[in-house]
Amino acid sequence: MGEITTKDILKGYDKKHLTIATVCSHSSLQLFHGAKKEGFKTLGIAVGEAKKFYDAFPLGKPDEFFIVDNYKDINEHAAELQEKNAIVIPHGSFVEYLGAQNFLKLELPTFGNRNVLVWESDREKERTWLEGAGLTMPKEVKDPRQIDTPVIVKYHGAKGGKGFFIAKTYEEFLKRVDHDKPYTIQEFVMGTRYYLHYFYSPIQKNAYRLSKGSLQLLSMDRRDETTIDEVQRLGSIAELEEIGIHPTFVVTGNIPIVMRESLLSKVFQMGDAVVEKSLELFGGVIGSFCLETVVTEELEFKVFEISARIVAGTNPYIAGSPYSALIQTELSTGRRIAQEIKYAAQHKCLEEILT
Ligand code: AMP
Asked: What is the pLDDT of residue 1?
């Protein structure tokens, strides 16, 4: 942030009348629902006009809509939002619509550590963080001529898996690749996918203890990706590729899932190591984060991505998940975030969870 710090802004806030604000998209119904349950006022930022479909979900509808002409203008409205004691909960679409630079400069208290964006969006830095924490990531193939096993080619900054493709040989790679866009080539890991939704509190000690604060596992999902997840309805991938139909990885939804209980200790060890490393590198990944994993037939986890805020995969669990039910009934990630803000406001330590 520029001259004004989050601490300065918070000084002017009425902590008994905080408003939870986010952009109306992604996981906003869940966030508003959770915030209302914890007694907060809610504000939904929308472009052009209030979205009509929110009327059909009264428990997820924000108390107030804040209309802007363009998401990129949100920064200019910071003072108005400060008057409403607004605390922003960023989600994937929030950061994408605003743009990383605007998001980093936004003069509003924001849930989580904004510095994490640098470590998450740069693939090299992400690898330093996750491998530094002892996690196994898919192997990277630096030179496409060395492709000797199935690989997935990922374009940098591509949202929702758009444009990604699989190649089994260098020739296949050459046929498909767009050299104008920077890309990374990764080993395609065979196994089953689990997207693990953690919550790290640096200020509460009532869960899986870490050197500072504690860790929870609130839920997990599997993404539904078109067309890869249903392409077999038409034929095998090899058959389809022969006639020029290639599978794509565009996320369209999320499917609830649970995991073999014996794998949970590994899930916590990974979450623990990721948080500890983040504390060492950049002050900690605060609040929700998600490890995107593949479990191999040797029951080993390979982690191909981290998302350092609420993910849309938590949406199947607005009324709670099989894991959060063991913490509290009807506990969604959205509600857990609201609880953290409420706890920090009561204990006068909001600066520890907001940046
Ligand atoms: P990402 O944008 O990295 O989350 O990748 C988009 C999708 O591609 C994931 O949800 C997975 O289905 C798939 N994927 C990504 N990386 C790998 C990998 N190394 N091995 C297998 N599948 C992957």
From this structure: 46
**Is the overall model pTM greater than 0.90, yes or no?**
yes
Show the CA angle centred on residue 216, arms to residues 200 and 346, nearest 5°. Answer: 60
- Provide the residue count of the chain: 355
How many Å apart are CA 75 and CA 154, to the nearest integer?
31
Q: Which residues line ligand 1 (CB under 6 A)?
A: 138, 152, 154, 161, 164, 186-189, 193, 223, 225, 249, 292, 294, 304-305
Which residues have a Cβ under 8 Å from the Cβ of 51 and sit 6 or more positions away?
A: 24
Q: Residue 334 in contact with residue 22, Cβ under 8 Å?
A: no
Cα gap 304→130, rounded to integer Å: 9
Q: Buried b vs exposed e over 124-161: b needs ≥16 C-beta within 10 Å?
A: eebeebbeebebebbeebeebeebeeebbbbbeeeebb
pLDDT at 31 over 60: yes
**pLDDT tens string 68-81:** 999 999 999 999 99
* 110 phi, psi to nearest 5 deg: -125, 135
Q: By alpha-carbon position, which residue is closest to atom 3 of ligand 1?
A: 305
